[in-house]
Amino acid sequence: MTMLASPRTSPAAPTVDAPRVSDASAAASSVSTVANAQRDVEFAREALPWLDDVYRFAHSLTRDEADADDVVQETYLRAYRSWHTFIPGTDCRRWLFTICRNVFLRSRERQRPTVDLEDGEQDALAAGSVYAAARESGYDDLYARLDIGPALRDAIDELAEPFRTAVVLVDVEDLSYESAAEVMDVPIGTVRSRLFRGRRLLQEKLASLAAEYGLAPAVAGSTR
Amino acid sequence: MSAPQQNQLEALGLSANCADVVRHLWDYLDDQLTPDGAERLHAHMASCETCRGYSDYQSCFLEAVARLRARLDAPESLRAKLAEGLKSEGCSCWEDVTKDRASG
Lengths: 224, 104
Description:
The complex is a heterodimer. By secondary structure, chain A is an all-alpha fold. Chain A has two domains: 35-107, Orthogonal Bundle (Rna Polymerase Sigma Factor, Chain: A), CATH 1.10.1740; 120-212, Arc Repressor Mutant, subunit A (Orthogonal Bundle), CATH 1.10.10. Chain A has ten helices and no strands. The longest helix of chain A is centred in the first third of the chain and has 26 residues, at 21-46. The termini of chain A are far apart. The relative contact order of chain A is 0.10. Chain B is an all-alpha fold. Helices cover 65% and strands 0% of the residues of chain B. The radius of gyration of chain B is 23 Å and the shape is elongated. Chains A and B meet through helix 1, helix 2, helix 3, helix 5 and helix 7 of A and helix 1, helix 2, helix 4 and helix 5 of B.
């Protein structure tokens, strides 16, 4: 058996006992326990309050409750395991959204969407056309008069990616263009063009629904 | 502006002064315009009933979308499952999953 060498001490040296190996181990264990407890407290404080937000985002991505559950579960477990990579003071919700999107993309085993629309202006003009038709027909206050929430939720679920993600992040979850760009891993201009296309498609869809339910005349020239 | 876009604006019966509002209202509402650009749109809308109506219409739409945020929360079954998952990871705060609600 190899004995640990005792430190040489002179008679005048302080007589503090060297810590034994078992003491050092216990101390290290204690430090680790404290660190883990601190991590858990921070995780509970910073990450858990955003569970509903992450669920909504996951639901918008998967469009399926069971799939959303799985994505959220995996998102939070990954977040917990890699909590040391979260930078205190930064936007934890954005960090969770980024993990959530990555979990979703990997779960679908597909590449990130690569649709890039440079001309958000064209969509803005098209939205103007929808409004012009609505005004002409006297239902331009439809959004104010009716609770369009359920229809809007369905219309968002039907939006194609990547427009759906842009609308959910910016318009539902109130992320800035910059934060959404970080979550989506695209330039800010791409967020804008996808957002504008998504809004335009939603407004066309709602106009069609309004016509379908007899709340408004049919909209001519509606496109998808 | 391209010729088709110009034609689209004319088809809407919009003056050149209204064109900027149609093209950039979403940028304006999203606070993405420069202060000068925002002021220009604001000044025009103050004097143009049609553009004010369009701004109200788009604002109502965006408010309706934003209200969806309050309509869908994580179900209790998911919270219970996640609590179990965190517990098995050794997370001491696993019980908080079923206590916390969004503060955002």
